[in-house]
Amino acid sequence: MNRLSLRCFAMAMLLAFAGTAFAQGLSIDITDGSSTADPIAVVPFAFEGAGLPPETDVSEIVRADLARSGKFFTLGRRDIIEFPTRESEVKFATWRMLKQNYLVVGRLADAGDGALRVEFELFDVARQSRMMGLAISGQRTAMRDVAHQIADLVYEKILGVRGAFWTRIAYVTSVGLGQNTQYALMVADSDGFNPQVVVRSREPLMSPAWSPDGRRLAYVSFERGNSSIYLQDLSTGSRELVSSQKGINGGPAFSPDGTQLAMNLSYGGSPDVYVMDLASRKTRKVTSHFAIDVEPVWTPDGQRLVFTSDRSGKPQLYEVPASGGDASRLTFQGQYNARATICCDGKKIAMAQGTGNVYRIAVLDRATTTYSEISPGNVDESPSFAPNGSMLLYAATEGPRGVLYAVSADGRVRQRLVLADGDVREPAWGPFRQR
Amino acid sequence: MNNTFRILFSVLLVAGVAACAKKAVKPTATADTTPAVSQPTDNAGRYQVGDLDTDACLRQRVVYFDLDRTEIKPEFNAQISCHAEYMRQFPNARVTLEGHADERGTREYNLGLGERRGMAVQSALSGAGASGGQLNVVSYGEERPVDRGHDESAWSKNRRVEIVYTTAN
User: Fold this and answer.
1) CATH says A36-159 is which class?
2) pLDDT tens, residue by residue, A297-351
3) Residue ranges of the domains in chain A?
4) CATH of domain A168-429
């Protein structure tokens, strides 16, 4: 908060107060107010239907999504002095005076069978022109989904990049101590709302990984007394054991086409990277080294795997052809670099970077081989890129418990997701969803 | 862990006795299995079945490690030796070596580190007289801390291998 502009401070304060109204508290830190984020006003949407308005505040969710991305400064509600609901009511001079580049207005109407139709319009204030006008319908209970989809459309229209707000995240929770610890694998909306249990266990659960179609999760469970890898269908709940070799069965990662699962197995003596063909269940060994080779992730072209190995002493990231062969080292800065997550056609790799006792999230730009540190904690780990590369989730430690943060890819805007009591960790950001 | 072991131990004791009877191996052995005996090893240096709960050395079942290290420190040699000797004397005894790491570093890497520590204890026990078939290594990485603190005092307790008897004799 050291370089906080007055405007950001006002916004943060407003958000702090606004947060209490949402039952689940969300806090947001704007760490750098000097960036080039676009000012945008999201006017509260009018309810023009019969009966009571929905419990979900659609326009507030749109505003919060855009703010969290780091690409926008959203105008606080106190600063909104006019409440247009459609193009004919918009006075551009007002929004120009408020120094807004963009304006979103909208209204909710009945769509029959208890559903609501949300109509919204996006305007370019300087050009005084409408950029987009669309309607999305949904049941009252699905208004959060509708709001995230509107945020995605606004984001894409302005930035030319697909939005990733209407996505889901997976994570692991643990509650209790010692023998009474309860573990759960959870799935929630990208902003942490609508948490749902995928599986509960009295034994540790680890390393959730999404299938590219978003329908399945691979994860590690100790329920058999040793680490094993399971695949679970999210809609039916059915699941299957895919690897329970002697030793470690860990680090599952779906190939971009969903046909293969990379993993690390130690039955050969020490953890090595393997790839399983999911149709035949045959595995092939990709790395062969007495060191610890773990946490494989695929490059977006499906040709290579980036993994963590301590073959040079401390853990560092390496890259190897998915078909096997020589591994080459990728990271040379920092004592400890592990748990890669890849975005942007493979141009950027985020990782947990450790120096001494401090672990933070760093992003490596492969073209320039420069690193940027994007988290401020002491035990930050498990970074996971959003599918559009605009943000990351990571796990941090606050006092005795683990919490999750969403951070913009430039590190400028960071939001704590309040998901559950107890310890929350190992976030995995899911793929884009199909409408 | 201790309580779990005790319950497990009593169950196994009963099961073990039943198994002995079935195999008709020394039926008199049942007399030796009364767990209330608090004496240590007998004069000939031989362990008895109840010693796991009473013998000062055998009751030590945790080996601690330095940061990022997998070598067994000299102060644990006596503990390794007495467990190896017990396993040598009770070839049906089975032990799971549960390897653990502190919270620093990534979870999957720490699974690897916990396994390395488990294997270090496994090879030390084998070298001191236990047979490989009696030993099984399971790594929990950083998933089962005994101290959830975030300082060296907590970390040093979490970097460990627990010697867990799944079959006592």
Assistant:
1) alpha beta
2) 999 999 999 999 999 999 999 999 999 999 999 999 999 999 999 998 999 999 9
3) 36-159, 168-429
4) 2.120.10.30
ipTM of the complex: 0.89
Asked if the domains A36-159 and A168-429 are classified in one and the same CATH topology, the answer is no
CATH code of B47-167, in short, is 3.30.1330.60
Distance CA A136, CA A153 (A): 11
Residue A383, helix vs strand vs coil: strand
- Cβ neighbours around A179 below 10 Å, total: 10
Please give the Cα distance from A179 to B122 (Å, whole number). Answer: 25
Query: Measuring CA to CA, which residue among B159, B134, B130, B162 is closest to residue B145?
Result: B159
Kindly tell me the sign of the dihedral angle through the C-alpha atoms of A194, A413, A119, A134.
Answer: negative
Q: Within an 8 Å CB–CB cutoff, is residue B156 touching chain A? A: no
Asked if residues A408 and A431 have their Cβ atoms less than 8 Å apart, the reply is no
- Most A CBs within 10 A among B111, B155, B156, hence the mutation to make, goes to B111
Q: How many CB pairs under 8 A join A and B?
A: 91
Of A222, A315, A425, the CB nearest to B105: A315
Instruction: Verify whether the Cβ–Cβ distance A250 to B111 is below 8 Å.
Output: yes
Q: Which of A179, A223, A227 to mutate to test the interface with B (most CBs of B within 10 A)?
A: A227
Cβ <8 Å between A206 and B107: yes
Nearest CA in chain A to B112: A292
Q: Residue A187: how many CB atoms within 10 A of its CB?
A: 20
**What is the residue extent of each domain of chain B?**
47-167
